[in-house]
Specification:
The complex is a heterodimer of chains A (180) and B (321). By secondary structure, chain A is mainly α. Chain A has two domains: 94 residues, Four Helix Bundle (Hemerythrin (Met), subunit A) (Up-down Bundle); 39 residues. Chain A contains six helices and no strands. In chain A, α1 runs antiparallel to α2 and α2 runs antiparallel to α3. Chain A starts with a helix and ends in a 19-residue tail after the last helix. Chain B has one domain. The longest helix of chain B is centred in the first third of the chain and has 35 residues. Chain B starts with a helix and ends with a helix. Classes of the chains: A mainly alpha (180), B mainly alpha (321). Chains A and B meet through α2 and α3 of A and α4 and α5 of B.
Chain lengths: 180, 321
């Protein structure tokens, strides 16, 4: 094994281990914090594979924004310190089965699809230049389709979260101007 | 072997800058604030105009008992100061102070790295707010999270406008490309970046998360001694990082009126120091924004302004090409 492979394996172990802790810990906020470790290790994995841009986007979006949003949501609703007895779900065995089945499908697809094919890693292969050229030259149509999908989701989120859009207006209590 | 020596020297220099510059900003804050308010500020420690005041403060902090509240989550409580301060040290590694490799680590994606890592530091404050088992701390932590979510967007937009103008994400590359007429061209982006950065650091007037008149000291209420000192150090290291980043992105970094190659590092430091003075000045002159005003400033003004700047950058870039 080369040094890169060892580092990559270690990062993978950290990512999977902390991901397991996310779902098994009895402390709600700890789950979110373990998610930070897991996503960070994933970013490290991208770095080892020379995908620098994806790695830092992973840190910026997932660690910096998504987890902060999660923590905000948890703290806004319920964030007890210490073990919470009701964090166990009755569905956990079903969830485990689904998780194992998904992992099985993904692993077998990769194994059957690629066998022992390998690709040499070049420094700069995952830089912003290379990625930008690939996305906006070769893959521009899928990119546009994805952006339409995201836009639709965004509009949907706004419609769902605003009660004053689309719904029957009469049901809302009439407020006087300036009243809270 | 010379390579190794160079790397070690650079790391030592970055560590020294990380240890000294925040203290300089802190001392400047003591004195500048005092003089703006018609006071003298510290005058006794170290004899000459109280230059050793922060050293004395550090000694005091180190002597204090390390207290963890009984109901707190001990691990997270102890981990939080480290999570708050280490990201700023990492960002300092990629900031170029002068031309021709006067940077500890020349990353091709420097801008992205700096912004991504700066966002992680905020998790430290959120962890502190939750783990303290104190409702005021929790409220402060929530305000930190809400503030980060709204100000991260204009920060990234403003930085990407400069990256678009320069055609590179490397911090040294951006300074290389910089010309004086970028000042008016990127002016809106510069202001948005600086203001959003201030908000991300939770500096006044954006210090709602630590609003002392309502929630004592927000996430840091339960901290004392060295851990508290680390949080305060993180705040001042954050000022250094923000001022240096604004200098490099918007003010041309090491480019000055003369002797760019020889005195480049001096120009960078000088520009960053002026910005740090502005940070202190704003603290003295502006009252704290209320939470709703804070959110409105981000979503109703900074985000549209930064989008407008992006559009302007694109139009000018295409017109020039």
């Amino acid at each position: 094994m080369t040094g890169q492979e060892i580092v990559f394996t270690l990062l993978g172990v950290v990512a999977v281990g902390s991901a397991v802790l996310v779902v098994t810990t009895r402390q709600l906020v700890h789950a979110a914090l373990w998610l930070v470790v897991s996503l960070g290790a994933l970013a490290g994995g991208y770095l080892v594979l020379t995908a620098e841009f994806v790695a830092w986007v992973q840190v910026l979006i997932y660690v910096g924004a998504v987890v902060v949003l999660l923590l905000f949501g948890i703290m806004l609703t319920r964030a007890p310190i210490g073990r919470a007895a009701d964090l166990d779900s009755g569905n956990r065995w079903a969830a485990l089965a689904v998780a194992l089945a998904t992992a099985g499908v993904l692993v077998s697809v990769v194994v059957i699809g690629f066998r022992d094919a390998s690709m040499p890693l070049r420094a700069g292969g995952g830089s912003a230049d290379a990625l930008g050229a690939a996305v906006f030259r070769t893959w521009v149509l899928p990119f546009e389709v994805l952006s339409v999908l995201l836009l639709a989701a965004l509009v949907g989120a706004i419609v769902l979260s605003r009660s004053d859009v689309g719904g029957p207006k009469e049901k809302e209590p009439t407020k006087k101007r300036g009243e809270r | 072997m010379p390579d190794l020596l160079e790397v070690v020297l650079k790391l030592v220099l970055v560590a020294a800058a990380f240890a000294v510059l925040p203290l300089l900003v802190g001392q400047a804050e003591h004195k500048v604030m005092a003089h703006m308010q018609g006071r003298l500020g510290p005058m006794y420690a170290g004899a000459f105009h109280g230059w050793a005041q922060l050293v004395a403060d550090g000694v005091k902090f180190a002597q204090k008992e390390s207290v963890v509240p009984r109901a707190a989550d001990r691990t997270v409580f102890k981990l939080a100061p480290a999570v708050a301060i280490i990201p700023y040290l990492l960002v300092l590694l990629v900031i170029p102070v002068g031309p021709d490799g006067q940077v500890a680590l020349d990353l091709g994606l420097g801008v992205f790295f700096a912004l991504a890592v700066m966002g992680v530091g905020v998790i430290g404050a959120i962890m502190a707010g939750w783990a303290s088992a104190n409702k005021y701390s929790l409220l402060g932590g929530m305000r930190v999270a809400a503030q980060l979510m709204s100000y991260e967007l204009p920060l990234v937009f403003a930085a990407s406008s400069v990256a678009m103008a320069a055609g590179t994400l490397s911090l040294s590359g951006i300074v290389e490309e910089w010309r004086w007429w970028w000042l008016p061209w990127q002016a809106v982006g510069a202001v948005v970046f600086f203001v959003a950065g201030l908000a991300e650091l939770r500096r006044p007037p954006f210090d709602m998360p630590v609003a002392d008149s309502e929630i004592i000291f927000g996430p840091y209420t339960e901290y004392g001694g060295l851990r508290f000192a680390l949080f305060i150090l993180a705040e001042y290291a954050g000022i250094v990082v923000l001022c240096a980043l604004t200098t490099v992105l918007f003010l041309g970094g090491w480019k000055g009126p003369f002797l760019d190659a020889e005195l480049g590092w001096l120009w960078t430091l000088l520009k960053a120091a002026v910005l740090a003075f502005v940070v202190i000045w704003l603290r003295v002159s502006y009252p704290r924004l209320r939470e709703d005003q804070l959110q409105k400033l981000a979503w109703a003004y900074l985000v549209p302004l930064s989008l407008g700047q992006l559009a302007l950058t694109g139009v000018v870039k295409v017109a020039l090409a």
